[in-house]
Amino acid sequence: MDLNFTPEEEAFRAEVRAFLAAKLPPALAARVRDGQELGKADLQGWHDILHAQGWLANHWPAEYGGPGWSAIEKFIFENECALAGAPRVVPFGVNMLGPVLIKYGNEAQKRHWLPRILDGSDWWCQGYSEPGAGSDLASVKTTAVRGTDAGGDHFIVNGQKTWTTLGQHANMIFCLVRTAREGKPQEGISFLLVDMAAPGVEVRPIITLDGKHEVNEVFFSDVRVPAENLVGEENKGWTCAKYLLTYERTNIAGVGFSVAALDRLQGIAATVRRKGRPLAEDPAFAARLAKVEIDLANMATTNLRVIAAVAGGGVPGAESSMLKIRGTEIRQEISSLTRRAMGPYAQPFRPEAMHGTDVAEPVGPPEAATAAAQYFNNRKLSIFGGSNEIQKNIISKMILGL
């Protein structure tokens, strides 16, 4: 693969930069760079801007609303967005459910759900993990029992999902549910679309250590779901689940976010001084900085290979697990080095707890205020989407046959 961009690709990069300069609200970009929490309105606003441009679902086929970009164009777009400080596109509808519907959904489901994902009519969340089934999704216990009555063919769903990111904003959830107990555990799972407003659905917040409400528990008590919301075949949802997870794991790798974070870290290391010299000149720190830069360059190359394979009609396999492992490790290392660079200014604090007291807020570089919060939040990256230990097992089975 030739990794040098062609003149046409460089022209596309210029087009993306011009679009971001014109359409990305500067205040929103500043909040992203500062690591501030974004609300639903912020995320939906950027979603709408991209949709109006026709660039939202850049990995969808053109016939379903995608822009028809090449693998390289997608790579350029994601990197330029991250460098400009654009918010991430909430992935559950566009990046996860969309590809599953395109591949496994029937025509009626595609006609109904795909346009609603694009125009923001539906805000989706993911119902995979359960208290006893995280990386081992084959252990899901949420049940869906099929029946028919005067109201038509339907499922009755009972159970619980956990770690449901942004579920407090969602009106729809795609779920793995158990529809049979015979045979292997994977053979009795189905992929179901559930209306969060249906009677019997309850969302309870999980407040994290930093005081934020990002994740939730979702409970289902005799929730009635139309059978037409079954994606793919009944008891064959494991196929949909695996297909979706390859996209999720590739997305978790976050090459663009790492490129942007490394760029900021290099700027910090060049300006922050230790013992009268820039931190970038400290041999120990400079060695770690150089290593993560090399690792990121290698991962970017692998990411291009995977995207090119998908664009050619393939499906990410073990490569998505590789990207997930290295991508999360790199993002964690960058946040760790950023926190170290801030020194004592990176101590965790809650600004609102200091209001009305004699305690002054910490001073120092502007990046310091969120350095600790980002470091601790990024510890989860190597766990969700299938822990890195599970990814190593997948790689050993798919490549080494172990």
Task: Report on the architecture of this protein.
- It is globular, with a radius of gyration of 22 Å.
- It has helices at residues 7-23, 26-33, 40-53, 71-84, 91-104, 107-119, 237-253, 255-271, 283-311, 318-342, 368-377, 388-400, and strands at residues 124-127, 143-149, 152-161, 172-178, 189-195, 201-207, 213-226, 230-231, 273-274, 277-278.
- It has twelve helices and ten strands.
- It is α+β, with helices and mostly antiparallel strands.
- The two termini are 30 Å apart.
- A four-stranded mixed beta sheet has the order 1-4-5-8. It has a four-stranded antiparallel beta sheet with strand order 2-3-7-6, with no helix packed on it. A two-stranded antiparallel sheet has the order 9-10.
- A hairpin with a 5-residue loop joins strand 6 (201-207) and strand 7.
